[in-house]
Structure formats: structure tokens, C-alpha cells
Specification:
CATH superfamily of the largest domain in chain A: Response regulator
Number of strands of chain A: 12
Largest interface: A-B, 44 and 44 residues
Oligomer: homodimer
CATH topology of the largest domain in chain A: Rossmann fold
Order of helices and strands of chain A: HHHHEHEHEHEEHEHEHEHEEHEE
Structural class of chain A: alpha/beta
Number of domains of chain A: 3
Helix content of chain A: 40-55%
Number of helices of chain A: 12
CATH class of the largest domain in chain A: Alpha Beta
Radius of gyration of chain A: 26 Å
Largest sheet of chain A: 6 strands, parallel
Distance between the termini of chain A: 74 Å
DNA sequence: CCAGCGAATGAATGCGGTTTCATTGCTGTT
DNA sequence: AACAGCAATGAAACCGCATTCATTCGCTGG
């Protein structure tokens, strides 16, 4: 392995100068710098990052902790984080917690030892653990808010509202809500928005609670049956996956989408476009959230830059929504 | 920040002993060890990984370089790598090359500086670059073979063969092949297997070349049209995504799957089960491949352990395949 | 013409661990 | 009783780089 001293010796300068030539080019004479750079290249010198990290106290890495890298939205967050980190010259240490709330803290703490700070995606850990982690080093939350910790979240209430307005405009007067897990922060948020919107902003709209469901495709059958029984003419789902499941079940029971029942999802996963019919859904900007999280973590911007980002969501209307009962449409 | 010296001082031992108590517990007296461990815990000591890496020359990290973390199979590989790495006490540094062959080498080289070795997934870079990278540190290839470099690949020929046997057994005599990108190593491999099997192992089976296509859903329409025009009664696709696209296009033209045409995919992405009809496909063990790659990289096993893994694939028969022309079925 | 200044460089130190080597104090053997 | 041998520990030397501080040298300005 060729070290900086080797380069320095070969170039006829001191290690200090060699170091400067590489890392602080403008404090060294042009001729010297070029000589050092050239011999470094010739010798195939590669800086030892561990040594650099030790000397500067700066690892040049950030951590990314998420429940499941195979989930489309976490993968998208990872994509955003990776891209932004590269732009800023940082490397990304990734850790999958396998949806295990108990492991989550341990894993994150171990990651924190190696990096400048960690990005926690939809963390399930307790608030106390969150704060303990924050004591170990910088932390940024994605899709969760807690205390004063920096976070990036989404304006899902606006998305819910938009969806409801769309549905109402199409003539629907009774829309079902297929909820997510009871423990999910975002499920609670959506329910309260639903009630608020139906009660105040939109006239004569009835929300029917279709229960809590695991956010997976197969939950669709129970949810679809409940929807069909409820008399709702439109369904808003916690998740694209369950929306897709609902559609499938509806179709296999001979109920047409959107002619008989309209379905709206959440997330806009890649497959939403490819489904039949293509899914109307509230698109959540996962990748931009990843980028924003990196910016928050690395403090790009002034010392007193905002500590919270709330990203706008976007209702994308495709073909799983259509006119409601005749006579209602505007 | 609390260092090892702080712990040592507080415990009344030398830094050397403190270090041993933590990292090499059996060479230190029980009483001493416990005292050190306790004070370390009390002080909230966390080892500085950079310092450890510098001293031991061992970063405890491995690199994972892949073209696109949002692709289901790369995500699965990542999952496997992450899980196995954690079992072995390593952290994983991830880098997404954004499908950019030119960036790939640069990114991998930069990753190599920080880790013990890197796992390259479906690398597009030249053989020369591959070897240059290997000179920088240990390298393991996934889904590609090159020179003597350690690799884990898949026995796709067996999968192709299985699929063909299934189709022939169902009475199909003319099956189309929807190919992948011209540059893909695995496409070439499949084509030659196709020819070999059709020519030698299975009687009276005709393979019709349906051209090269980008491995995405939307390629399905061109491929489906070509298939319909070719008179083939079954189609084998490079990819689940194009298989799904083919099915969609076929259906929208009023051609039924599998009654009129059978379709077989490759990969078994999560959505293959959820499609209508559920897709018959050759399942590739991506996550196990990730695990195997880690084992190869970290040299779990004897010094002269095998340097190549070739994992078995598995044809999973679902509902996109059915009987061919009447009278042929066995 | 010389004091004084700034640019360029080198010597030395530290970052926080690990590890070699030497030292100390015992136990057990002859 | 003396000594070999071993277990437990400490002192000190790195690991490879960044950085502070001191030094040298060529210039400028009074």
C-alpha cells in the first residue's frame, strides 16, 4: 500500500506539503502541487479514509436506517439519499432493520458510531430511544415527527383533501376509508383529516370507516368486501398495495372499477401505473424526501436553516376513479 | 466525547488493558474485565471506529455497488447482503450507479477506498476496469462472470430448459423469445440455451426470435405484437416486467392469457404473484445471492474455498401458462 | 539598504485505538 | 531454596493523515 509519505518522498517534499497539495491545493506553489499530484497518480496513491477520518474527526459518511429496503418507497428514499449524498461528497452506510422495532435502536446506534449522522425512515422506536440516539449524534427523521428533531414529512392532509374533492366532484357522496395499521402515525393523521374535510369543507360527504388493515396486497380482499357491503361508491386506501388488492378483489367479484366503485391509493408506487386500471393515487415524493433529509443532516445552508421540511404531495388522477351515482356529478 | 483513555483512567488501568478488556476479553483477569466493562457502560463509551480501522487496518465495512436500488431484484440483493453482513458484524456501504456504465468504475473505486471489499451487481464496466478494481481490493461479482474473479451467478440455462419442457409438455410447439438488451450477458446466455434445448433435448420445438427489447413494462407492446404476428403459442420473456407488459398488451388486443397464448417471465419479482393472471416465471434467488456474495467476499470458510457460486433457479408455475394447441398435450 | 511582511515549506504533534515487548509477581518443580 | 514458566498488566510505538507552529527566503517600502 502506498501512503502519503511515499508520495512525499518520491516528490521530494515533506508529508505536510504533500497533504496540502492534495487537500488544500491553493496554499502550495503551483509547481510543487503539480509535481505531487503527478507522482501521486504515478504511484497509484489512494488516501486511507480511516486515517483521514481519524485526523479530521469527519468520516464523510452518513447513515440510512430503514425498515425494509425491498419496499418501493423506502427504496426510493434510498435512491434520493444516495444521489444527494454523492453530490455532497458523502458515502452512505445503509442498514435494514427488517421491520423490527426492537432491533431498530440497536442498529441505528451502531451505525451512528461510524457516520456523521443518521437518517431514520419511518422509525418505529419510542420517543425516548429517538432522543437517546440524537444524543449520540445528528439525526434526521423521515415520515415521522418527534419533539424538536429535524424531520421531513409530507403534507398528506392536503392529499386527502384533494382526493375527497375529486371524488365529491365526480358525484360520490359516500366514500370508504381503508385504514392502515392501528399503530401507524400516518393513519391517525389521515383519519382526522378525513373527518375534518367531510365535516367542514365538503358538503354532504359521508366517510365510512372500513377498519384497520395491514398495508399489503392481500388485505385487499377483506377491505373490498367491507367496501362492497358498506354501500360506499368510492374507496380511499391507506396504501397503493391495498388499493391494488381491493381492485383485484372487486373485479373478481364482478364489481367494475371505476364504473361501480372508484378506488384511490396512496404513495404512487411504480406499479400503480401498470395496474389495470391504472391507479388514481396520492403521489408522495419519496426521493425528494431523501434528498431533503441529507440536506438537513449535513446542514447545507445557514446555521439556522429550517429544521423541518414538509413536502407537498400530488394527487395523480388515472383510471381507477370515475363518476359516482348519476345525478350527483357537477 | 469519551475515549478509551477516559475509561481506562476511570477504571484505574492502562489504555492497553482497557482495550484488551473490550476486544480480547480472555486475556485479562475477570475482575479487571468486569470493572472496565462497567465503567465503560457508565461513561457511555463508544469506540471510535475510524481509530480502530486505522489501527487494525480493517474497516469492518463492505461495499455494495448496484445499477439501481429501486429495481426489485437489486433491492433483494441488497437485502441479502445487508442481512448476511450484519450476521458477520460488518456494515454495508451502498452506492447506486444510476445505470451509468461510465460512472460505475469511478464510484466503485471510491467505495473501495473505505471498505474491505466490494460486491458488484450486474456490473456493466469493461473487463479491464473490473480487473483494475480488483487490484484495488477484493471484489465479488453478482450476475456476471469475468476472468478469475469470484462471482455468484445463476443457473439460468436450467431455468430456460425447465420452462421449455413445461411448455412442450403443455402442447406448445412454437415458442417465442422476447429478448433483453443486445449488450446483456444474460441475454446471450439464454439464447444459446434456447437453441441448444430446442435443437437437442426437446423434439419438435420451434424457437422464434422476437427481437431485443429494453427490459421494461412498456416494451411489452411491441413484443406482444410481434408475438401475436409470429404465430407462437407461448412466449418466454427476458424479464417479468416485459412479461407483464406483454400480457397487458395481449389482453387489450383481446388475446387471452393463457388460453390463446402462454407467457413465462424471468426473475419472480414481488408483483408477479399479484398480476392477473399470476405470472409463471423463473424465480431467481436474488437475496441468497447477496448472502453468498458476502460469504465469498469475507472468505468465510477455508482459504481455498470455492470462488464461484452458481445458484439454482426455480420455475414457479402460476396461471399465465396453459395448454397449447389441442392434440399436442401429453 | 535594511526592517518587515507574506508566501512556501518542514518538523512535530495529535486523532483514538491496537499491539508488541518488557516488567512484575506468582505458582510449582526439582 | 532457587529458578523456570506463566498470567496479568503497563509503557510505548505505531496506523496514515491533517494541522499547528516555526523557519526560510524573496520582496516591498520607507
Amino acid at each position: 500500500m502506498v501512503t502519503l509519505r511515499d508520495v512525499a518522498r518520491a516528490a521530494g517534499v515533506s508529508p505536510a506539503t504533500a497533504s496540502r497539495a492534495l487537500g488544500n491545493p491553493d496554499v502550495v506553489a503551483v509547481s510543487t502541487r503539480e509535481r505531487v499530484l503527478r507522482t501521486a497518480r504515478e504511484l497509484g496513491y489512494r488516501a486511507n479514509q480511516a486515517a483521514r477520518a481519524l485526523a479530521t474527526g469527519n468520516s464523510g459518511m452518513i447513515g440510512l436506517v430503514l425498515p425494509d429496503i425491498e419496499s418501493p418507497f423506502f427504496a426510493s428514499i434510498a435512491k434520493g439519499v444516495d444521489a444527494r449524498a454523492r453530490e455532497l461528497g458523502s458515502a452512505v452506510l445503509i442498514a435494514d432493520t427488517e421491520e423490527d422495532a426492537a432491533l431498530e435502536f440497536e442498529i441505528a446506534a451502531r451505525v451512528q458510531e461510524r457516520v456523521e449522522g443518521v437518517i431514520l425512515c419511518s422509525p418505529r422506536m419510542s420517543r425516548a430511544h429517538l432522543e437517546e440516539l440524537a444524543a449520540l449524534g445528528p439525526v434526521v427523521l423521515v415520515n415521522r415527527e418527534a419533539g424538536g428533531l429535524p424531520s421531513v414529512s409530507f403534507d398528506t392532509p392536503a392529499g386527502v383533501r384533494e382526493a375527497l374533492v375529486l371524488l365529491h366532484g365526480l358525484g360520490h357522496r359516500s366514500v370508504g376509508y381503508v385504514g392502515g395499521p392501528r399503530s401507524a402515525w400516518s393513519d391517525a393523521e389521515r383519519r382526522s383529516t378525513l373527518d375534518a374535510v367531510a365535516g367542514l369543507e365538503v358538503d354532504g360527504l359521508d366517510i365510512v370507516d372500513l377498519g384497520h388493515h395491514r398495508p399489503v396486497f392481500s388485505s385487499g380482499v377483506a377491505a373490498a368486501d367491507a367496501a362492497a357491503a358498506s354501500g360506499a361508491t368510492a374507496v380511499l386506501c391507506y396504501n397503493d398495495l391495498v388499493a391494488l388488492g381491493v381492485i383485484r378483489r372487486l373485479q373478481s367479484r364482478g364489481i367494475r372499477v371505476p364504473e361501480d366503485i372508484s378506488v384511490v391509493g396512496f404513495d404512487d408506487i411504480p406499479f400503480a401505473t401498470l395496474a389495470a386500471p391504472p391507479l388514481t393515487t396520492v403521489a408522495v415524493p419519496w426521493a425528494p424526501a431523501g434528498r431533503a433529509a441529507v440536506d438537513l443532516l449535513l446542514g447545507t445552508g445557514r446555521p439556522q436553516a429550517p429544521q423541518h421540511f414538509r413536502l407537498a404531495v400530488d394527487l395523480v388522477v388515472r383510471d381507477s376513479t370515475g363518476a359516482g351515482p348519476a345525478g350527483n356529478a357537477e
